[in-house]
């Protein structure tokens, strides 16, 4: 069903309201039969998008409310979260920063609601990676991350006025010798171990 403006060729053009066969609805601007310009799209499952469209795709600035209560407000390119935006997750965590292909990618800040801790730094395909700072209530870690875990040299800075320098080392996985009939147990991911090298007063952090 469609009610609204049409062009000389009979295509939806200008402002209109439509109910789609799947139960979704759209109210907004059209150009030559396609959603184009500002509009609001309501999904039957309770999700809602309000923002810009370009040839039927979310493109430009827009806000998407997901059925689980989470919400993204920011840039879109060809239906993907891409550019800069803020995501409020269903558990109350937030991410503010750069996006590419629907994933956190580039520089961004992730705030953990439960602990108040926040990660400020690089992201690659949704995973924490690159130089970063992990800020807790009374101390912070400055260093690098790889695949979501701290790696290599870094330092902990404590609010009481001292620093602990060191590095994160990936421990070797110990393989147990097993009898042949026993099945291989999946090896648990090994957490990197922090090895302290020195404790100093506060020092400037080289960029």
Q: Could you characterize the architecture of this molecule?
A:
Helix content is 0%, strand content 62%. With 207 residues, the protein is mainly beta. The chain folds into two domains: 1-67, Histone H3 K4-specific methyltransferase SET7/9 N-terminal domain, CATH 2.20.110; 78-202, Histone H3 K4-specific methyltransferase SET7/9 N-terminal domain, CATH 2.20.110.10.
Mean pLDDT: 92
Number of domain units: 2
* Radius of gyration of CA atoms, rounded to a whole number: 25 Å
| N-to-C span | 59 Å
List SSEs in N-to-C order: EEEEEEEEEEEEEEEE
The name of the CATH topology of the largest domain is Histone H3 K4-specific methyltransferase SET7/9 N-terminal domain
Looking at this structure, what is the CATH superfamily of the largest domain? Histone H3 K4-specific methyltransferase SET7/9 N-terminal domain
Assign an overall shape: elongated
Beta fraction: over 45%
Largest sheet: spatial strand order: 1-2-3-4-5-6-7-8-9-10-11-12-13-14-15-16
Which features does this protein show?
mainly beta, Histone H3 K4-specific methyltransferase SET7/9 N-terminal domain, 2 domains, 16-stranded antiparallel sheet, 16 strands
Annotate the secondary structure layout.
Blueprint: E1 2-6, E2 12-19, E3 25-31, E4 34-42, E5 48-54, E6 57-65, E7 71-77, E8 80-88, E9 94-100, E10 103-111, E11 118-124, E12 127-135, E13 139-146, E14 149-158, E15 162-169, E16 193-201
Antiparallel strand pairs: 1-2, 2-3, 3-4, 4-5, 5-6, 6-7, 7-8, 8-9, 9-10, 10-11, 11-12, 12-13, 13-14, 14-15, 15-16
């Amino acid at each position: 069903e469609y009610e609204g403006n049409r062009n000389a060729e009979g295509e939806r053009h200008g402002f209109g309201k439509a109910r789609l066969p799947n139960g979704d609805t759209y109210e907004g601007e059209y150009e030559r039969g396609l959603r184009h310009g500002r509009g609001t799209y309501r999904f039957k499952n309770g999700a809602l998008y309000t923002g810009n469209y370009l040839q039927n795709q979310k493109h430009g600035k827009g806000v998407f409310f997901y059925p689980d209560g989470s919400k993204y407000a920011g840039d879109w390119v060809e239906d993907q979260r891409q550019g800069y935006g803020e995501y409020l997750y269903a558990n109350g965590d937030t991410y503010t920063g750069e996006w590419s292909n629907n994933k956190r990618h580039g520089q961004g800040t992730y705030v953990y609601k439960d602990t108040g801790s926040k990660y400020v730094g690089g992201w690659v395909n949704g995973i924490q990676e690159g130089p970063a700072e992990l800020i807790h209530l009374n101390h912070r870690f400055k260093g690098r991350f790889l695949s979501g875990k701290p790696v290599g040299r870094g330092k902990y800075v404590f609010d009481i006025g001292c620093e602990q320098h060191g590095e994160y080392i990936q421990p070797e996985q110990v393989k147990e010798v097993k009898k042949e009939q026993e099945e291989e147990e999946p090896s648990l991911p090994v957490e990197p171990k922090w090895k302290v090298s020195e404790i100093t007063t506060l020092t400037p952090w080289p960029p």
